[in-house]
Amino acid sequence: MPVDLVTLCGHLLLSAPRSTTIPCMRPTGRNILIAIGAAIVLLGLGYVWGASGRFTVESALNETRQQLDIAEARGHILDARVSLYNMNFGEASRRMEEAKAPLRRVHQRYVDEGRTGAVRSISAAIEHLTEGQRLAGKLEQGANTKAGEALEAVRVATSQ
Q1: Is residue 7 helix, strand or coil?
Q2: Domain boundaries, given as residue ranges, for the chain
Q3: For a Cys-Cys bond, which of 82, 110, 114, 149 suits 128, CB 3.0-4.6 Å?
Q4: Cα–Cα nearest to 151, from 125, 121, 127
Q5: What is the average pLDDT score of the chain?
Q6: Residue by residue, what is the 3-state secondary structure of 92-136?
Q7: At residue 17, what are phi and psi to the nearest 5 degrees?
Q8: What is the pLDDT of residue 29?
Q9: What is the C-alpha to C-alpha distance for residues 8 and 50, in angstroms, rounded to an integer?
């Protein structure tokens, strides 16, 4: 058998038969388990790191949505009051109807949060708008008073 100089895993060997596998390149069960364990730990750390600020961001997003819905409802109610001042009862009725959708979303959020006082105020605002629409349909200026009462109920709800 001829003597060959072969480097195997950093060791100098005199001869290496061609049929043998290289011992340092052979995966062992222990090495595979270590790699799987490291991957699981890294995935867990990534999840915790990614979820760390999620609650804060979600609560800020919900608060912003709430403020946007309240501002939208107020804008529609104020538009309705301007329309009533200009004797445009049809436009006023439409604006009051448009104000109900964001108020219903605000109402549902207050229900979810368990804020009963705010829920009552928003419910009252929706009732005032319904009554205002009824009065606008009869071409009565009392609709303006109901729109004002709805604005006041929204103000009370947001202060609670």
Answers
A1: strand
A2: 6-51, 54-159
A3: 149
A4: 125
A5: 85
A6: HHHHHHHHHHHHHHHHHHHHHHCCHHHHHHHHHHHHHHHHHHHHH
A7: -65, 150
A8: 81
A9: 44
pLDDT tens digit sequence for 66-111:
999 999 999 999 999 999 999 999 999 999 999 999 999 999 999 9
CB distance 52 to 109 below 8 Å: no
Instruction: Count CB neighbours of 140 within 10 A.
Output: 15
DSSP of 8-60: ETTEEES---TTSPPGGGSPPHHHHHHHHHHHHHHHHHHHHHHHTTHHHHHHH
Q: What pLDDT is stored for residue 132 in this prediction?
A: 96
Which CATH fold topology does 54-159 show? Four Helix Bundle (Hemerythrin (Met), subunit A) (1.20.120)
In angstroms, the CA 12 to CA 43 distance is 40
Of 6 and 146, which is predicted with more confidence?
146
**Model confidence at 3, in pLDDT bands (50, 70, 90)?**
very low
